[in-house]
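Escalation from tier 1.

The customer reports that the assembly of four entities below gives different structure tokens on two consecutive runs. Tier 1 could not reproduce it. I'm attaching the input and our single run for tier 2 to review.
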Amino acid sequence: MTSRGAIDEAKKGSAEVVILALIEHESHHGYEIAKLIELRTDGDLTFTLASLYATLYRLEDRGWIKGRWVEKAGQRRRCYYRITEAGRKVLARQREDWSRFVAALGQVAGVKYA
Amino acid sequence: MTSRGAIDEAKKGSAEVVILALIEHESHHGYEIAKLIELRTDGDLTFTLASLYATLYRLEDRGWIKGRWVEKAGQRRRCYYRITEAGRKVLARQREDWSRFVAALGQVAGVKYA
DNA sequence: CCGGTATATATAGTTCTCCTGCATATAGGA
DNA sequence: TCCTATATGCAGGAGAACTATATATACCGG
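Tier 1 run:
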């Protein structure tokens, strides 16, 4: 997986809020989350699978998400994650923080959000 | 210096574009740049001085900025930085990239830029 | 039926940016 | 004289992303 230019730097720290948002309303498994991120941002934002799984384990350790293993015939086993109540609070907070950060960046660095 | 919540994570990688933007039109020395960032973002975005100087040296190594030492009576010596031609190109590119990243984040994570 | 691609998860080791803590140095006010 | 603000600099470490590699299954073409 490749990503583009300075987005390599920009996206540091964004994995958490992105993942939490994606499993806010429906549960998804790791591989699916990676594909969704890529799809919904037209490839502007991607995370390597290794990073993504590491992040999922971290979020689960913190109690912000909860995984459930599902085994189906004709499929490799998958772990479906959903957000927890604690996770919802964190998500709300992170959205505010990111929003404030983006505003600050516009102010001081002239980054326009088209 | 303290910073607020998830902005700790968010801001990773943002120092470069912020510094380049601040010395786009006029030269500033390190300490001044730190104060400007804090001032212009109402304290939402800050960098510790140690990080800031490290970043300045890195940017100069890459040829994106150029420092000039100024000694004045009644003042500690200061290094004033200005952006280079190469730096201007990088700044333009980083603004585009950050803009695209912010759009992606709004799309996939529901981050609203007020 | 055999090999390649897509799906799906997992670990190890590395890189990069920012951090804290410490050190140095000068000017001005209490 | 001591404390604060100004101003720069280094050493060591934390954390989140990366690459590379390993494992395992389903599906499709030749």
